[in-house]
Amino acid sequence: MILAENISKTFGNIHAVNDISFEVKEGSTMVLLGTSGCGKTTTLKMLNRLIEASSGNIKIGGKNIFEEKPEILRRGIGYVSQNNGLFPHFTVAENIAIVPKLLKWDKDKIHKRTEDLLHQLKLPSREFSNKYPDELSGGQKQRVAIARALVSDAPVLLMDEPFGALDPITRAAIRKEFLLLPELKRKTIVLVTHDVQEAFELGEHICLMDHGKIVQSGSPEELIFNPSGSFSKSFFSHQKLQLELSSLKLSRIWDSLPESQSGRSAEIESRDSFWYAMEILSDRTSRELVVSHTGDDSLKTVTFSALQDAYLEIKQNV
């Protein structure tokens, strides 16, 4: 879906991004991870030409982005920034409707789509449609920004530190809601963050950047269990145990889990992490969780001890 080949960006004598290449498969989420100034936001903005690349090639959906007018390109790409970018003099509904109006959607279609997204994002239309950004909390503003990025149903979504301005509790809650959005299952997403835990929760593929270069790329599990070089090792060292558990998905041990006999509905999915399952189990009296698997009607159960045993076995085999 997205193919970047040898892209660079220079500002005078400064090489903000230096000859990097990557591919984002259709329907997957790639995270650009690194400290401030490493080039991750510049890389993201080159994908929708908010920043023009100095050299290299970028294709989205097989089309060369440099052969299209920037404003037309951006209408087909959802974009969420850290500061939400809402227009203060527009209502919530008006903010969400900006791109659909440019695309000349009719009013009924815009209204229905806006209502649907606000419902998914836990902002009931009756209560929030006519409010202005200054009347919303930080978390609510960011939900509206996400709705605006999703409203035109563009196949690609770019997110620049989308939860960075939120307090830790709100941030964690919105991340979990974000993962459950039905809309996202059809999107190709590139997300920028400096938050390692966020990258491991949301990303299927991570590009770790430093000084304008991609130092290492791979799945969260590959990066945390097989870091290449001193930078990768030191970058993940402070949260190593938590990140290891976050990188391991329940699908890894699906075949070894027992079938559920409880009659309860699914409480967690096989794509969720060991860490997330352990968090839930530690906050409740029940000793097991019912797990569902994508594309499979069967339900299985997982316990805290099963997760511990599986983690120790994986560690021994690394």
TrEMBL record:
Top-level taxon in the UniProt lineage: Bacteria
Q: What are the BP-aspect GO terms?
A: quaternary ammonium group transport
The record's section on PROSITE patterns has: ABC_TRANSPORTER_1, ABC_TRANSPORTER_2
The molecular function terms of the Gene Ontology recorded here are: ATP binding; ATP hydrolysis activity
Q: Which Gene3D superfamilies match?
A: P-loop containing nucleotide triphosphate hydrolases
Q: Quote the InterPro entries the UniProt record gives.
A: AAA+_ATPase (IPR003593), ABC_transporter-like_ATP-bd (IPR003439), ABC_transporter-like_CS (IPR017871), P-loop_NTPase (IPR027417)
Is this entry keyworded Ligase? Answer: no
Q: List, for all copies, the residue spans of the domain called ABC transporter.
A: 2-236
The alphabetical list of record keywords is: ATP-binding, Nucleotide-binding, Transport
Regarding protein family, the annotation reads: Belongs to the ABC transporter superfamily.
The name under which this protein is listed is ATP-binding cassette domain-containing protein
**What organism is the protein native to?**
Dyadobacter psychrotolerans
